[in-house]
């Protein structure tokens, strides 16, 4: 493979914590030191950064291919600057055995981007019997999670964490108290009362996180909280990190850029799990992200078909697609002055790659040539019917966004170019 030189680029280097003007050379699918090149890509002063590593992507295969396939999810990822998808195990049936994982990995070959898989933590995600963590690790699982189904039995979760600790496996939890959050579809408060919708108190997240962290302290397991969305949960997270526990936390792009008032008059595209929070909570999470207390931003891409969304708000399926909108939505935080580009890219690329032990997230020589070229200032009006995802359930439909992907490269091969 001949070398390619990206010239006249604004290089967003999250490891060095800087944006610098310069060139980047790639060869044989990896970033290379300066030298001769056969192909030159003129970046025209646009930003060139490591590809996004998106943790928590839902793909409908098997069982719900009509909502999203690996092929369509991969195309959406490439169009959104996502070069690595880490897929959730909440399929139908769930990925809870090596055989199911092998099937998913075979189907994922249709995607033009890197695909890694989580496996379920308990059989059928039922919270009663631990999966064969060792066998699933050997089959390629990079983490273990029951998704939004909280393991209510503390003894079962303790056993899972203890066994995962013995194998060095990462457990991804969804911090919610299952009793308090059952049946809720919005965050409790004045808005929920005015709309007559069942709500869940932010304290449910803190209670769920406190329990999980106590078990992590008891077992020494590696733990990642998939979404921290409330100010009430942040002190517990800070204490765990200060105590030296092997704990990280993430947040979805929707909780970083939207709040409960966006639900307005029962707009079901804004129904997500956990529900959107107050503006005070949103700002607290943004601040925690800027300080490094929150480590990872993910799209939590959850495709739902029209039939499951065109229902009364309380009955509608939760979730929103995000692979194509994660970059422009995240750039809202930059344009608002909350984050700079290197800090943002550390949460989008470097930190998730490091946490899951995956390649990527760096512009250093030898790193994979997984790259995204984007114009951070390009304005556009989002039309959900132009998305590559099979499902079109985005809360940003009709929104004015700023920042467009111009090209995406995976292992040195261009997989997306804006026409």
TrEMBL record:
All residue ranges annotated as the Amidohydrolase domain in the record: 339-416
Keywords attached to this entry: Pyrimidine biosynthesis, Zinc
Organism of provenance: Jannaschia pagri
Keyword Zinc: yes
Top-level taxonomic group: Bacteria
Name used for this protein in its record: Dihydroorotase
One Pfam short name: Amidohydro_3
Record InterPro entries: Amidohydro_3, DHOase, DHOase/Allantoinase_Hydrolase, DHOase_cat, Metal-dep_hydrolase_composite, Metal_Hydrolase
Domain Dihydroorotase catalytic: 48-230
